[in-house]
Amino acid sequence: MPGSLDPIDVGVQIPYHFRCPISLELMRDPVTVNTGQTYDRSSIESWIATGNTSCPVTRSQLTDFAFIPNHTLRRLIQDWCVSNRNFGVERIPTPKQPADPSLVRSLLSQASNESLPSHTRLAAVRRLKGFARDSEKNRSVISSLNAPITLISIIFTESTRELTHESLGLVSMFQLSDAECDSVASRPYRILYLVSLLSHSSIEVRVNAASLIETVLAGTRSLDLRVQIGNVDGLFEGVISILSYPFAYPRALKVGIKALFALCLVKQNRLKAVTAGAVDALIDRLADFEKCDAERALATVELLCRTPAGCGAFAAHALTVPLLVKIILKLSDRATEYAAGALLSLCTVSEQLQRDAVTAGVVTQLLLLVQSDCTERAKRKAQLLLKLLRASWPDDSITNFSDDFRCSDVVPF
């Protein structure tokens, strides 16, 4: 291997031994394997994750997958970065070390030990929370040691509010197993407690409670249990209040729409959602969602439009039709499909909404949609909607289109 320095884009040369043998890039978290070779942690972990069990350089079999941080080399790399900062080289941060399973096990034992002082237990949960925030790998380690079931027990048995709230925040970072979801869903007092937290003074506590409710709903296979959860007084009002939180809080929007969508997947819950004010919350916040959350919000709109009460509430909101028309072909294929489906439901029950949709330019959007590469379900909804609207649009509304876009060519009558 050459001992010279190779030039890089910023006009400075990286010492050969500072480069990872796998990625050939500057190492940010050098670790040494049992063969004595050093690699960047992310590179060697990716190498092993793809099924390789040998050392990339020596080709010897790796007998131990516990990597040892090479602190000396990392400090040398950091010093080199500092000395070359005038060339645009940024100092690599000192990496946070992965959570040690034995330490995680000890912290979980402390957190669940009721004989210990509450401040000791609280410190243990907060340290676990710090590990969980650092990386997905840490969350995997913590979850593998049955942390969720331990934390669930703390949440519903502990009288110290601060410890309960911190445990709730930590458990909301994990995906729960079916058994863990059932352990919450099948005990009404646990759902009642979570719903009570939806009106807590702290928005963080409210969001974490809604997050756990959504996780439980998504992981519970029993329809009867999902219906029972939806019947708890104050649930929909609490979730919608999070969705309507007046300040910019992206996590509140994300958790709120996930929870509302999970609830509305159950047919028996949709009228409750409409009654609690879901329609105004969805339309008023539609422009604030990120892409995947906007898709979920539009799917919820379509679900609620399948009920007479939902159709009536959306029809009464002046922005519903213009927003849905505007979304077609603008956000994503899924968003287009949901928006077209909602418009189809609305226009089916109201001639006035048909005229409103035509005025908002829906004919142009639908004609483009059926000629696009969108999903077949979206095209089918567009064709049905075009057929429904044909009597509502003026004769000159499609005169600017070529023959390929004529309604008679794309809509079967």
Task: Measure the end-to-end span.
Answer: 73 Å
Helix content: 55-70%
Elements, N to C (H/E): EEEEHEHHHHHHHHHHHHHHHHHHHHHH
Mean pLDDT over the full residue set: 89
* Major sheet characteristics: 3 strands, antiparallel
* Beta-strand percentage range: under 5%
The neighbouring-strand order within the major sheet is: 4-3-5
CATH class annotation of the domain at 6-87:
Alpha Beta
- What is the CATH superfamily of the domain at 6-87? Zinc/RING finger domain, C3HC4 (zinc finger)
Radius of gyration (CA) equals 28 Å
CATH topology of the domain at 6-87: Herpes Virus-1
The name of the CATH architecture of the domain at 6-87 is 2-Layer Sandwich
Tally the helices: 23
Number of strands: 5
Write the layout of secondary structure elements.
Blueprint: E1 6-7, E2 13-14, E3 30-32, E4 38-40, H1 41-49, E5 68-69, H2 71-83, H3 101-112, H4 118-134, H5 136-144, H6 147-157, H7 161-171, H8 178-185, H9 188-197, H10 203-219, H11 223-230, H12 235-243, H13 250-264, H14 270-275, H15 278-285, H16 291-304, H17 308-316, H18 320-327, H19 333-349, H20 351-359, H21 362-370, H22 376-389, H23 407-410
Antiparallel strand pairs: 1-2, 3-4, 3-5
Helix pairs in contact: 3-4, 4-5, 4-7, 6-7, 7-10, 8-10, 9-10, 10-13, 12-13, 13-16, 16-19, 18-19, 19-20, 19-22, 21-22
Keywords, please?
disordered N terminus; disordered C terminus; 413 residues; EC 2.3.2.27; 5 strands; two-stranded antiparallel sheet; single chain; ubiquitin protein ligase activity; three-stranded antiparallel beta sheet; transferase; 60% helix; ARM_PUB; mainly alpha; Herpes Virus-1; RING-Ubox_PUB
